[in-house]
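Sample pair:
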Amino acid sequence: MMCTYATTVAGITGSAKGPGGQWFPVSRITTYFDHPVHAPAEHTLNIDLADPSRGPSARIALELTAASARELIAAIQAALDAVPPELIR
C-alpha cells in the first residue's frame, strides 16, 4: 500500500495528560494515515493532540488501525448522541 500523505490539521479546545501525569492544554489536532512508529501494523491512522506553543513535548500521539479508528469514531459519536443537547455548546 502506498502512503497518501493526506494530512488534516484543525484547531481544538481541550486538555491532555502527558508524561509524568501532567495536564496541559491542547489546541491542535493533526491526523494522517501512514506508517506507524510503534503500533504493530503496516499503516495506521495517526492522531497527534498538541499545544504547539509549549514545544514538542506537549503532545499526545495515537496510532490506530483503521478498524480501531472507526471504533473510536463510533464511540465518540455514541457518547455525544447520549448527551442532552442543552449541555453541548
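Residues 29 and 48 are 6 Å apart (CA to CA).
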